[in-house]
Every structure is written in structure tokens, then in C-alpha cells.
Amino acid sequence: MLYPIHETFHSWQGEGVHLGRSAFFIRLFGCPVKCPWCDSAGTWHPEYIPKQIEKRSAVELAEAAAEAGPEFVVVTGGEPAIHDLRPLTDALGGKTIPVHLETSGAFEIKGVFDWITLSPKWQRLPLAENIGLASELKLIVEDEVSIEKWIHELGDGIGETPVWLNPEWSQRENRGVLESITSTVKKRGAPFRAGLQAHKFFKADLLDPNSSKPSPLGGNMELGY
């Protein structure tokens, strides 16, 4: 089985519980969710997809990860769960490398993971069983009412699992968005935590020559994305 690859690179995890830890990223092509503010649009948007898409086997990817020597591997996208990830997690397990998954949770998860970051999207809501599998939740705060809308939507799905509140990158200086995160953390406390994409401030991913150039959209609905 061959996986369509957008990029593989060695950096550090920029979000969530594992912030700052050495990580090898495997970013797969394909995403039916298509968020209007996607920061990895090169995995699906026709204006960004290259003419040729590299395909690599699970064994090749596991060997590349082992050679980089990270603390763990992050399988991401796009939406990685549209692929059967069992051969990949088996190959990485053979290298005794912990495997993390970043997913919207909207598709069945196939594979064995040590950690699952679930970031639900309005464009395609997560499956209930996947919310139960999540090691942490990451809510993208698009505007001042995003958090309360997600709390209402997820309901009992929010338990003791950490819930990160990350401002959508193009809104990172929006005072209303930032204040909504701060007030939620102050008012509700655990499991809610203020989050941020720290790796973008450091431009850490770009230090690996194998990483792709950023292809953010930015939420311009007038352009259709």
C-alpha cells in the first residue's frame, strides 16, 4: 500500500499537551472537510496541489521517521483518517516509535495510536465514537461565539480530556476572539485551556528543507474557500 504524501519533516509539536517535543510529521494528501481557513490547503485545494504527488510505502515512511530520531511521529493532513493507516502504524510500531494522530474525527480511525488529537470541524462533524477515543480536543476559535457553539454541540463529549482553545491563525490578533478564550478559561477552568500554534511563531517547520511552503487560505468565503 502506498500513501500520498504532501510532506514529511522533522520539527517539534507546536500545539497541545505535547507542545515543544521533538516530532516527525507525516502529512498525507486528501481532505473532504475543506475548512475555509485551512492552513494546509496544499493537501486538497486545486490552486495548491502540485502536478505530481509523491507516494511512499509504510515501510519507507517508518524508516525515514526512525532515521530522524524524534520522540514521536505525528500522522496528519489534510484528513489522514480517510486512509487505512493500519499498515503505517504497524510499520512505525515495529520501529518502537510512538505514533500520534491529528484528525477531525469525521471518519473511522484505522490504526493503533498512542495519542489522538481530535479537532472537530463544522464542515463535517466528528463521529461520536471518535470523540471517545480522543486524548485531547482542539477547538478552532473562529469568532467570539465559536466556543459556546462547540460546547453546545459536543455536550457530554467534553469530559476530563484537555480541551484546547486555539485562535484560528488569521484571527490571532482579533481582540474579541482572544478575550473569548481568556474568559472561557477563567470562567470554566478545566478541561479548557488556552492554546496557540507556537511553531508558527518560531517558523520551526520551515527549518527542515523537506517541509512544504505554507499554503494558508484565510477564510475568504467570497472566493469560495
User: Taking all residues together, what is the mean pLDDT?
Assistant: 94
Distance between the termini: 32 Å
Helical stretch tally: 6
What number of domains?
A: 1
Shape: globular
Main pleated-sheet profile: 9 strands, mixed
Low-confidence stretches: none
**Relevant CATH superfamily:** Aldolase class I
Count of strand segments: 9
CATH topology: TIM Barrel
CATH architecture descriptor: Alpha-Beta Barrel
Q: Largest sheet, order of strands side by side?
A: 3-1-2-4-5-6-7-8-9
- SSE order, one letter for each helix or strand: EEEHEHEEHEHEHEH
Residues in helices, as a percent range: 10-25%
Question: What is the class in the CATH system?
Answer: Alpha Beta
Give me the secondary-structure category: alpha/beta
Strand content: 15-25%
Description:
This protein has 225 residues and is of the alpha/beta class. The protein has a single domain (2-217), classed as Aldolase class I (TIM Barrel, Alpha-Beta Barrel). The chain is built from six helices and nine strands; from the N terminus they run E-E-E-H-E-H-E-E-H-E-H-E-H-E-H. It has helices at 58-68, 86-94, 128-133, 146-154, 175-188, 198-202, and strands spanning 2-12, 22-28, 54-57, 72-76, 99-103, 115-118, 136-141, 163-167, 192-194. A nine-stranded mixed β-sheet has the order 3-1-2-4-5-6-7-8-9. Strand 6, helix 3 and strand 7 form a beta-alpha-beta unit. Helix 1 crosses helix 2. The longest helix is centred in the C-terminal third of the chain and has 14 residues, at 175-188.
